[in-house]
Amino acid sequence: MTEISEQDRLRAKYNTLYEKEAIDGLSEAEKKVLRVEPVRVDGWPADRKQALVYLARPGGRLLEIGCGQGEVLAALAPHFDEVVGTELSSVRAARTRLALAPLDNVRILSEPLENLPDTAVAPFDCIVWADVIEHVVDVIAAMRILARLSHPGTQLITVTPNVAFLPQRISLLRGRAPNTAIPWMPNEGFLPNPAETPMLDGGHLHYFTFRQVEILYQIAGFRPDLRLGIGSRFIRLRNWWPTLLSGLICVSGTYVEGKRLPDSS
Question: What is the C-alpha separation between 179 and 171, in angstroms, rounded?
Answer without folding.
Answer: 9
